[in-house]
Amino acid sequence: MDGTATTQARHVRVEVLHRFRVLVNGRYVALPEGSQRLIGCLAVADHAPPRATLAGTLWPERSERDAHASLRQALWRLNRHVSGLLEQEHQHIGLARGVEIDLHEIYRLSEAVTTSEPTVNRRAVRLLEGDLLPEWSYDWLDGRRESLRQVRLHTLEALARNDLKAGRTATALVAALAAVGLDPLRESAHRIVVAAHLAEGNTSEAIRQYGRFRDLLWDELRLRPSRQLQEMLPVPVG
After folding, report:
1. pLDDT tens digits, residue range 99-146?
2. Closest by alpha carbon to 177, among 157, 199, 148, 162?
3. Which stretch of DSSP H or E encloses residue 94?
């Protein structure tokens, strides 16, 4: 986008799943690297952090003075590209109200599966498959990534179980296989896949799924599948 975009009376979206992007009215806005890091950090934060904390998090290798200077530069450059994206109050900085963040959609979906029974849809699965800023390698992301991975796995499994319970085996398989893709050693996800195949009458598919998991589990961890999983199958398995 050429020139400076403003968030006033516009739809602004920050995406941190699959990749980093800032969109204004659906159009991508290119930002300098420092401004990208700033927005990414704020998008994954639980609340607006103090300026000092933000500067130290983003530029830990620099002195306090230099880190604050880097933060001021990132803020100035960001405002040149997208004005009004941030709110600053009492030395705290956060994203402006009304800025949409794709990460928040995952948490809303996660809450929904605990209070209702939402069904699988392609957009939800695509969202839940997205790693958090996969091309970035900063220490402040490590804990966030693992926490989010667990939320994604549990949500995908819950969606799959809901659809399996309702007899929607095809969509249950989509969600369960997405969970397997996130963590191939997760037995609870494989159990849902096996159950869905059996519900469709595809015993051979269920056995093959079990076999793939059994072999992977042994190769990686020298462990065997649980008896619970083995007893789901109508024929003896090792």
Report:
1. 999 999 999 999 999 888 888 888 999 999 999 999 999 999 999 999
2. 157
3. strand 92-95
What is the spatial distance between Cα 184 and Cα 158, in angstroms, rounded to a whole number? 17
Pairing mode, strands 86-89 and 100-101 = unpaired
Alpha helices by DSSP H, listed for 101-202, are 102-115, 122-128, 139-165, 169-182, 187-199
Neighbours of 235 (CB within 10 A): 7
Q: Which residues of 211-228 are buried (b: 16+ CB within 10 A; e: fewer)?
A: eebbeebeeeeeeebeee
Residue 207 has pLDDT above 90, yes or no: yes
* % of the chain at pLDDT higher than 90: 87
pLDDT number for residue 237: 84
Q: How far is CA 149 from CA 18, 153, 154, 177, 187, in A?
A: 13, 6, 9, 15, 16
Structural fold of domain 7-98? Arc Repressor Mutant, subunit A (1.10.10)
Q: Does domain 101-230 have CATH number 1.25.40.10?
A: yes
Question: What is the Cα–Cα distance from 198 to 164, expressed in whole angstroms?
Answer: 11
For the chain, domain boundaries: 7-98, 101-230
What would the pLDDT profile of 17-45 be if each residue is shown by its tens digit? Answer: 999 999 999 999 999 999 999 999 999 99
**Dihedral sign from CA coordinates of 191, 197, 203, 208:** negative
